[in-house]
Amino acid sequence: MASVQEILDDIARSPKATSDVGKVADYIPELAKVDPRQFAISVATADGKLFCAGDCDTPFSIQSVSKVFVLALALGKAGDSLWKRVGREPSGLSFDSILLLEREHGVPRNPFINAGALVTTDSFLDGSTPREALGALLRFVRAASDREDIHIDENVAQSELDTAHRNFALAHYLKSHGNLVNTPEKVLGTYCHQCAIEMTTSQLALAGRILIDAPDMPNLLSRQRKRRINTLMMTCGHYDGSGDFAFQVGLPGKSGVGGGILVIAPGRASIAVWSPGLNDYGNSKLGTEAMAQFANKTGWSAFG
């Protein structure tokens, strides 16, 4: 079998040969400016190696990939009581849908759709100022990746906050059902800033090592918590495209509308791929295709 680096180099050549790269998230003005033809992929293996191809030194807005790290911190703060406020089931609807939230009396289906992520942000934020909470989040991500040069892009955060009308609607609906402790304004301000964390695929792949469950990896989560977060990534990490991603790739993953995807090969590696153009589900088009190629070429799968 080809080496990991040879596989990545081969995959990184594919985007140059395709004309359909998807559409950037133009409803967030700052993200609308990003060149959709960029592509990067990085793999951090359990034996401490890092492999990269493409634009892997270009920072991008991780957006909803941040929900993985915030969920880990919220569980560390609230424990299993968090599951009284947010479910663990796939939604089958778009990431910003209010339909299920209405039907299920203000309890979001899972922590990765926007409504669920607002609840986990609220839980993590409780008792702290937004500055303190975001500082703790950055310290966590920096410790996970062993990289200090990870920051929040204030322009992206403000752009997202200025256009967060649907997320404000979700937050107010959650508040009306008593499922937000903090004000919608405080939660949304924190949420938009967490989504605006900038990382390269190399940094993100390194940060994902906390979920590999292998010796000598950053020991920031219990084994049970790693397993549960990976399970939620598999079933809910790509919104209404989660089943399709699981079918094609067979690995837990979490996407973001900035075009990034964090994928975990349990016991083997953490993989980060980025291409800003999105498919109809709101997930990276070329990133999803690249991960399907990668899983096929390596034979890595959560199912053996």
Shape: globular
**N-to-C series of helices and strands:** HHEEEHHHHEHHHEHHHEEEH
CATH homologous superfamily caption of the largest domain: DD-peptidase/beta-lactamase superfamily
In what order do the strands lie side by side in the largest sheet? 2-1-8-7-6
* Spatial extent as radius of gyration: 18 Å
Low-pLDDT windows of residues: none
Would you state the CATH class of the largest domain?
Answer: Alpha Beta
Could you tell me how far the N terminus lies from the C terminus, measured between alpha carbons in angstroms?
A: 17 Å
How many structural domains are formed by the residues?
Answer: 2
The assigned CATH architecture of the largest domain is 3-Layer(aba) Sandwich
Number of helices: 13
What structural class do the secondary elements suggest? alpha+beta
| Percent of residues in helices | 40-55%
How many distinct beta strands?
8
Task: State the major sheet.
Answer: 5 strands, antiparallel
In terms of DSSP E residues, the strand content is 5-15%
Kindly identify the CATH topology of the largest domain. Answer: Beta-lactamase
Write up this protein.
There is one protein chain. The chain is α+β, with helices and mostly antiparallel strands and 304 residues long. It has two domains: 4-61 and 199-298, Beta-lactamase (3-Layer(aba) Sandwich); 64-197, DD-peptidase/beta-lactamase superfamily (Beta-lactamase, 3-Layer(aba) Sandwich), CATH 3.40.710. Helix content is 45%, strand content 11%. It is built from 13 helices and eight strands. The strands form two sheets. The chain has a five-stranded antiparallel beta sheet with strand order 2-1-8-7-6, sandwiched between helices. A three-stranded antiparallel beta sheet has the order 3-5-4. Helix 1 (4-13) runs antiparallel to helix 13 (285-298). The longest helix is centred in the middle third of the chain and has 16 residues, at 130-145. The radius of gyration is 18 Å and the shape is globular.
